[in-house]
Automatic annotation (TrEMBL):
Alphabetized Gene3D superfamilies for the sequence: 1.20.120.1760
Keyword terms: Membrane, Transferase, Transmembrane, Transmembrane helix
Transmembrane segments: 160-181, 216-249
GO cellular component terms listed in the entry, alphabetical order: membrane
Entries under PROSITE patterns matching the protein: CDP_ALCOHOL_P_TRANSF
InterPro entries, sorted: CDP-OH_P_trans (IPR000462), CDP-OH_PTrfase_TM_dom (IPR043130), CDP_ALCOHOL_P_TRANSF_CS (IPR048254)
Official protein name in the record: Phosphatidylglycerophosphate synthase
Source organism, top-level taxon: Bacteria
């Protein structure tokens, strides 16, 4: 799931049209978004995989919006399968693979934009709209699939468990909206105060690892367990609880960060 600006430009399209896969990949490695705040899977697995897809798509002449559309096809095909296909080992592997590839391509669209000389506001808008649909529909697909296939076959699983994916959908939606709002409001306020658009600093690796249970990439990988629905339900519940707990903590942090910028602005305007 990509957020915010798509990163530094890597030259104009005219300058790079003759470039091959290897050269494109090397340039992408030299100009990546800041790792600040990124969970471990997203940082060390999804972004490198996205670079490979980006270099391929670029050499094949695909545009960033086309890459976004391809990403959506992989993701939503997997989600339709979660809702409509009986769970099994093969289905779980294919669904997990579809979600992983869709997530990597979601990272690739912005990198293709950089290779072509910069992104567009319409591309950014399209990317975020598709992410918004994905964040809600993924968990609703889990609820539908379990209601249709798992609950009738596994009476040990209480029907009240369906509240877990419904609650997870709310958590995912609030987190995504809060992340975008905080990023954009903070950027605008910092620029108005004459500060750098993004606060300096890095995220320790231990914190990146600590965020693993809340990482969308880990959620994608969990779907390979659909062949064992009760195991998947357990893992999915753990991820839901971890994500809800993290949301509570990060909402407080976001509020404090924005409040600090407001105090700085108020102090600067005081007579």
């Amino acid at each position: 799931m990509t957020t915010g600006v798509r990163g530094p430009d890597l030259g104009t399209r005219e300058e790079t049209d003759a470039e091959g896969f290897g050269a494109a990949l090397r340039r992408l490695r030299q100009a990546q978004k800041s790792p600040k705040g990124a969970p471990f899977y997203s940082l060390w697995v999804n972004r490198p995989l996205g670079r490979v897809f980006a270099a391929l798509m670029y050499t094949w002449g695909r545009t960033p919006n086309q890459v976004t559309a391809i990403s959506a096809c992989f993701t939503f095909a997997a989600l339709v399968a979660v809702a409509l296909v009986p769970p099994g080992p093969l289905a779980g592997v294919l669904i997990g693979l579809g979600l992983v590839v869709g997530y990597a391509l979601d990272s690739a669209d912005g990198q293709v934009a950089r290779l072509r000389g910069g992104g567009s506001v319409t591309g950014e808008w399209l990317d975020h709209v598709i992410d918004s649909v994905k964040n809600g529909s993924l968990h609703l697909a889990v609820a539908i699939g379990f209601y249709r296939f798992v609950l009738p076959e596994h009476p040990a699983l209480d029907p009240w468990w369906l509240l877990v994916p419904l609650g997870f959908s709310v958590v995912a939606g609030v987190h995504f909206a809060g992340m975008l709002l905080t990023e954009q409001l903070s950027r605008a306020r910092r620029i108005s105060l004459g500060m750098t658009a993004v606060a300096p600093g890095t995220t320790p690796r231990w914190m990146s690892l600590a965020k693993l249970p809340t990482d969308y990439g880990v959620l994608c990988l969990s779907f390979v367990l659909l062949g064992a629905p009760l195991v998947f339900a357990t893992v999915y519940t753990v991820l839901a609880v971890a994500s809800a707990g993290y949301l509570v903590l990060v909402l407080g942090k976001w509020y404090r960060d924005l409040r600090a910028l407001d105090r700085t602005a108020a102090a600067g305007s005081a007579p």
